[in-house]
Amino acid sequence: MSGEHTSAPVAARVRRLEERLIGAGVVAQEQLDASLAAMLKGASPVNGARIAARAWTDAGFRERLLTDANAALPEVGLSMAGGIQEQRLKVVENTATTHHVLVCTLCSCYPVGLLGPSPSWYKSEAYRSRVVREPRAVLAEFGLVLPDDTAITVWDSSAESRYMVLPRRPDDTAGWSEPELAALVTCEGLIGTAAV
Fold this sequence. Notes:
The protein is α/β, with parallel strands linked by helices. The protein contains 11 helices and 4 strands; from the N terminus they run αααααββααααββαα. It has a two-stranded parallel sheet. A two-stranded parallel ribbon has the order 2-3. The longest helix has 16 residues, at about 10-25. The chain starts with 7 loop residues before the first helix and ends in a 5-residue tail after the last helix.
């Protein structure tokens, strides 16, 4: 699964739209490039990792994050603002009995500012359709085999709502600093296709 990338038709359509907008004089290529660069400036899975590490070490922040993520993000210098509209962020916490995984079944909505540019497999039609129908099998393809009694919840992002998984804190990390903990967190863990 992780090696598949079937979003080329979408990329081609986006490029055709860009060309039509440029050809009609609505926007210049330089403006599109500058907008993309501004959107991606500071966008990194390091941001999501910092959020997870803070939640693991600060119970009050964790509670605020799970209750109202948009309100909690400024505590770590982040926000969901910056796009055309502010998106609602919901953080869902993995536990010993529940595992969460993210998808956008319609396109590829994703909290870019917190997780960096989305992986190509996240945009693929194969991932988008299969993770909803057979999440346990898809997670196993990523190397994440969960116990049969672990409930799996699939969260479907939209233009208005984005999600981030709060992975379970790894065992044997008591006393670790936030930067040490953040270094353990991967983009895949924040999407839910990996344990951390």
